[in-house]
Structure formats: C-alpha cells, structure tokens
Write a structure and sequence with these properties.
Layout (H helix, E strand, L loop, with lengths): L6 E7 L6 H13 L2 E6 L11 H15 L4 E3 L8 H11 L4 E7 L12 H7 L1 E7 L6 H9 L3 E9 L4 H6 L11 H6 L11
Parallel strand pairs: 1-2, 1-4, 2-3, 4-5, 5-6
The structure holds adenosine-5'-triphosphate and nicotinate mononucleotide (NCN).
C-alpha cells in the first residue's frame, strides 16, 4: 500500500464495548498510516446498550493502553452520520488525504449510508478483512459504481465482536484494561457474570 505523508486513517466505532478486535485493528493501522484517528459514535441502525459517554470512556482506556504516538481519540468527530464526521475532519486537517476504515462486514452497507456518493468522493474506503466476512466483487462494484476508491488493508483481524460480548459478557473477549470500569459500574452485567 502506497500512502502519502499526509494520510490519515479515520476509524469510528460504536465501542459497545471495544473488543480485542478493535484493539488489533487500531494497532495494525498504526503500523501503516502516519496518523490514526478514532472516536466512539452512535449508529442510527443500532440500539446501543450503554450511553455514548461510557462507550467513549472505554475507547479512551483502550487508546491509552495502545499508547502509540500515531494514534489519537478525537471525540469531536463523533456523529451517527459519516458525512458529518468528514465535514469536521476536513476542518481539522484541511491538507490531509483520508482513508475511512471499515471492517469487511460493513462493505455492503456503505452504499446505503446518508450521502454515500458525496462520502465516496471525499475519502478512500479502507477495508479491514474481518474473519468470517469475505467481501464479494458485487459489494466492491457497488461502492465503485458510486465513485468510491477502495483499499484492502494488508492484514486480517481475528474473529471478535461487541455483540458476542453483550450476549455473554466474558473478560477474555475484551482488553483487560476495560475490566475495572465495567466491574465498578456493572456495565453489561459483567459483575454478575464473573468469568
Ligand atoms: N474483529 C473485527 N475485525 C475487523 N473489523 C472489525 C472487527 N470488529 C469491529 N470491526 C469494524 O470496526 C468498526 C466498528 O465496529 P463496531 O464497533 O460496530 O463493532 P462490532 O463488533 O461490529 O459491533 P456489534 O457486534 O455490536 O455489531 C466496523 O467498521 C466493523 O466492521
Ligand atoms: O453515515 C451513515 O449513514 C452511517 C450509518 C451507519 C454507520 N456509519 C458509520 O460506520 C462506522 C462504524 O459503525 P459501527 O456502528 O459499526 O461501529 C461509524 O463511523 C459510523 O458512524 C455511518
């Protein structure tokens, strides 16, 4: 992958909660991009289990754990709609070239996002292959048809998801640094399910 010095990877997540998959993805991105920006957001298509403020707190703990000079949490980018996130990103870094990072499970959804065509004219879509979620040529063609440019990231993230943790909260599914806050506030019922 050829990247310019002004490349920025943008990675939004509902972080409900952040998982080992989010940790692996953020760490891999720091090996490739000169700058990696993350934030926690609400997703218009999902019901979140805990408030955005708490999810942001959890993501902040994860970013601190990774503690990489290229990685930063910029919560002001948070919006349920990517088009609004991008407007803020262009204000903050007017000279940057952006890659909007998604897992391969989201490839089929991007063409349905609000103002998808406008989003795809502003940023490249960088796809992280998610174990169990292959992408088809049809999905790629749908994005390209709307003018999108696609980068397939050169790594695969092991199977892991927030919903799996929410269904059955287990410490082994999340970064261990999140556990104290989850127990303290009994988020996701982890304190009732001490494994
Ligand atoms: N294990 C993973 N591998 C690759 N991409 C991932 C992984 N987990 C999350 N992502 C990507 O990170 C972004 C944010 O995902 P999100 O925070 O919704 O996690 P999730 O595990 O998919 O959540 P949920 O299970 O609640 O749907 C999405 O682009 C998603 O595709
Ligand atoms: O813009 C949209 O219409 C849109 C709809 C659903 C999701 N997104 C974005 O997709 C990213 C991942 O969302 P999620 O909930 O899978 O973590 C996050 O940055 C969201 O803001 C964007």
């Amino acid at each position: 992958m050829k990247l310019k010095n002004n490349s920025i990877a943008l990675f939004g997540t509902s972080a409900d909660p952040p998982t080992l998959g989010h940790e692996a993805l953020l760490s891999e991105l720091t090996k490739i991009f000169p700058k990696v920006i993350t934030w926690a957001s609400d997703n218009p298509d999902k019901n979140h289990q805990i408030p955005l403020l708490k999810r942001t707190q959890l993501l902040r703990i994860l970013v601190k754990k990774i503690s990489h000079p290229k990685l930063e949490l910029v919560q002001e980018l948070s919006s349920p709609r990517t088009i609004h996130t991008l407007k803020k990103a262009f204000q903050l870094w007017p000279e940057a070239s952006f890659s909007f990072v998604i897992g391969s499970d989201l490839a089929m959804h991007v063409p349905k996002w609000l103002n998808a065509k406008s989003i795809l004219s502003k940023v490249r879509i960088a796809i992280a292959m998610r174990d169990g979620w292959p992408i088809s040529d049809v999905q790629l063609a749908e994005i390209k048809k709307l003018g999108g440019k696609i980068e397939i990231l050169p790594f695969t993230i092991p199977e892991s998801s927030s919903s799996k943790f929410r269904e059955r909260p287990q410490k082994v599914l999340i970064p261990k640094e999140l556990v104290p806050l989850l127990l303290e506030e009994n988020l996701y019922g982890l304190a009732d399910n001490r494994k």
